[in-house]
Structures are given as C-alpha cells and as structure tokens.
Predict the 3D structure of the following.
Amino acid sequence: MKPRIFITRKLDEGVIAPLREKFDVRMWESESVKVPCEVLVKEVAEADALWSVLADSIDREVLMAGAKLKVVSNLAVGFNNIDLEVAKEQGIIVTNTPGVLTETTADLTFGLLLATARRLMEAEHTVRSGNWTSWSPMGYTGMDVGGATLGIIGMGRIGEAVARRAKGFDMRILYHNRSRKMEAEAEHGFEYVELDTLLEEADFVVILAPYTPATAGLIGARELGLMKNTAVLINVARGGIVDEAALYEALKNGDIWAAGLDVFATEPVPKDNPLLTLPNVTVLPHIGSASIATRLGMMTLNAQAITDVLEGREPDNRVV
Ligand code: GLV
C-alpha cells in the first residue's frame, strides 16, 4: 500500500502530480474553505504525512489522531499553528518553508509601508467611488518614507531584506532582535537598540518577529504610548503580537498616526473588528508571501520534505 498524504487545501496540480505516482494523495476539495476539524482528524488518522496551511490548527487532538503520522509540512515559514511539543513527544517531524519567501514578503512589507504612509487605499477608494471632486492642497497628505527612521522588530531573513530595501530610501535603520546581527551592522550600518528606544525613535515600526509566548502581546498600550504620534506601525508577522484593542485606542486618539496590517489576531478578520472602522488603518488579508512563483516554490519545498520523510531521508527545513 502506498503511504498516504493528506493535504488540507486544494493545491496546484503541477506540484501535486509527481507525488501521486508514489503516494496515495488525498486533498481537501477547496482552496479557500478550511477543512472542518472533524474531517481533518479523520483524515490524519489514516495519513502518513500531513500537508497543512497556516490557517489550520494542528493541535494535540489532530496530532494524537495520527497513529502513523510521520511528518507535518506547513505551507508557511511560521509554525505557531502547530503544537510542536506534542509533535516532538510523538516523534512527528515538522517542516516549514523559509528562504524561498524572503524577498516576496519583504516586497509586500515595503509596499504596505508605502501604502500606509501615503494613504494609497483611501485615495484609491476616493477615485473609484466617484468622490474625487477636486485637487486639494492638503488632500491625502501622508508621511515621507525617504530619509525617515525605520525600526524593525525581529531581524531575521525577512527583516534584513526589508532593511536592504529601506537603504534605497535613505532610511536610518534601527532593529531589535533576540540576537545581535554584527555582520549586518558592520556591512549595512543597521543599529541595534533596545525595544523601547526603537519605539521612541522610529517613524516606521515594522513587526517581523515570530509569534511565540515571548512575543504574544509584545506591542500593547505602553509600547504604543512610547511611539511618536506621527509614527506608523506595520505588522506583517502575526496578529497576536499586537494588542488590537490598545492599537485601536492609539489610532483613534492620535497617539500614533497610522497602521498597516497584513495579519490579525483572528483570521479571517471578523467584519466587526473595530480596527476596520478607522480610516488610518490599511488592511490586507495575510498576503506576505503571495506571489505566484513564491507560493509554488513553497509548495515545492513541502512536497520535497514530505517525499524525503516518507522515503526515509532527513528533510530540509526541519523545525522539530
Ligand atoms: C506567513 O505568514 C508565513 O508564515 O509564511
């Protein structure tokens, strides 16, 4: 009997077809509707490999159902949706898709930063809705990006790629990270600072840290209070790193100037999330790595990792 793979979303057949020759591939039928938990548990019970997406909660219940499960490969660089402790305990390998998405995610980050600073979504909406009645001297005026100070929280591969882009905009680059990046500091002049200093000095604060117990709620009322009232917050990491209620208050009261959010504490973001009522918030549906080439590249990494594990080889990009 061929080993069984369960894929939690409908994925590109070009990537999946080669797997079908060697494995019994079962795939959830929808690209956009999440597989219900009871279906997931049932499928995992029969699977040797699970190919998940970041919207799936691969928790204890799911992992414990996998009587012969050897690997979970996640279509994301983040893996906070997977209970790593249980995976480790059960001897289940977990892999992710770093590297291939670095530049694409940095592009989106910088795009969101520019769009938020220059109010592009608001301005676009005015044109489309027929409300562009006159050129106005102070209409849609925003914040300058060129020459401003950028503060990056979480200086991994994507952080460095964002910082390289920022250099082209003559920005001063501050960063805060668990560890110093001496090489990048020497080569590019990035400055390591404590988190509070970064928040006080940056015109643009960009969150790129992984979501862990240490970063959950990292940016709350106190931290937002340290930021300039002209500052812009960009979150492209995970929604739970920012206290959304505190962010709403800070934006509403003018404690900070604007926010660009690609991620939310609950995704898809509920329609009644108060942040969606504010004009100074630019929102996106978690699309950091969403270029055609990158998403296919990520899928190729998952397919390879699953193949490696099922054929007894050590996979690349192993998390546990
Ligand atoms: C996206 O958020 C990812 O983790 O790849």
The CA atoms of residues 77 and 98 lie 5 Å apart. The chain has twelve helices and twelve strands.
